[in-house]
Amino acid sequence: MLASDGRAVRARLNFLYFSYAPDFDCVALSLRTLAHAVPDELIGGVTLAEDQKAPFTPGQVAALRAHAPSLQVVPVRDFEWGSPRSTHAELQIFRQVCEKLPDPWDLLVKVDSDVLFIRNAKWRTLLRSNAPAIGDGHYLQHRFAQGGLYMIRRHIVEDVLSKAGLADVEAVAKAIDSVGEDMAISQLLADRGRPFLFTRLMLFPDEYGPLSRLNTVVRREFLALHCHKDKPSMPMLAQRFSLLDQPAIAT
After folding, report:
1. Strand, coil or helix: 169
2. 93, 49 in Cβ contact below 8 A?
3. Backbone conformation region of residue 33, classed left if phi is above 0, alpha if psi is from -120 to 50, else beta
4. E strands present in 120-228
5. What whole-number distance in Å separates Cα of residue 31 and Cα of residue 117?
6. Coil, helix or strand for 75?
7. Residue 2 above 70 pLDDT?
8. How far from 202 is each of 30, 189, 205, 241, CA to CA, in Å?
9. What is the DSSP letter of 22?
10. How are strands ordered across the β-sheet holding 43-51?
11. Confidence of residue 50 (pLDDT cuts 50, 70, 90)
């Protein structure tokens, strides 16, 4: 694979879910769509960061591995949703996962439980790019990447995010007046000269709601549906948009 400047790159997509047992059905369906949407040769691995306040049962983990055989589970302890401490904990998981990635240009792909994937040649295009981090900015006025799905190179995690301490995260949260992990990470990267490349990645409920099908334009531009506050609709959406029976796309 060649990067956009001609360098030889063996980068792969390495998916990282943050979830817990109450969202088992969502994660299982998301993984099923991932298996249909992204070619195996582009995937380096799948990791599930598991909130220890509600861990998955062994049977649930086995069921998830049926959809993602490479699935690795790592525990997240003392996790406080929506706080600088939780953002810092996520950064430590980023670092832990990236330590095992073979190529500095590997993409760590952070995923929420409520994301359904769309088959799209854009995955390969993004891997070939030189972007240090890739996110969807259209939900947050192109100032911050929305947290449902974003991607960061291994070397950026190592050189920038893994060096951010809790005090750094707290200072950023205060500066942007938000405890959102996606906004804090966006600001950390921007402050250090490695901002997100914003492109269209996700359709949100007000965007996919009126659609009866995913037309060619949607399938060319978007990688996923983010079922933000719409988790009960995920099985219906997977069926409506044929996400478990997706046609191959020439790459």
Report:
1. helix
2. yes
3. alpha
4. 133-135, 149-153, 197-198, 202-203, 224-226
5. 8
6. strand
7. no
8. 14, 21, 10, 14
9. G
10. 72-76, 43-51, 13-19, 107-112, 149-153, 133-135, 197-198
11. very high
- Stated as kind and residue range, the H or E segment containing 19 is strand 13-19
pLDDT per residue over 197-239, tens digit each? 999 999 999 999 999 999 999 999 999 999 999 999 999 999 9
Residue with tokens 């995955």: 123
Would you give the distance in Å from CA 106 to the centre of its chain?
13
Token pair recorded at residue 5: 């400047």
How distant, in Å, are the alpha carbons of 87, 167, 186 from that of 173? 10, 10, 11
**pLDDT at residue 73, rounded to an integer:** 97
If phi over 0 gives left and psi between -120 and 50 gives alpha, with beta otherwise, what is residue 160? alpha
Contact of 38 with 67, CB cutoff 8 Å: no
Residue with tokens 């659609």: 211
Tokens of 135: 């996110």
Helix axes 84-98, 181-191, angle to 10 degrees: 70
Token readout for 9 is 């790159």
Residues 143-155: what's their mean pLDDT?
95
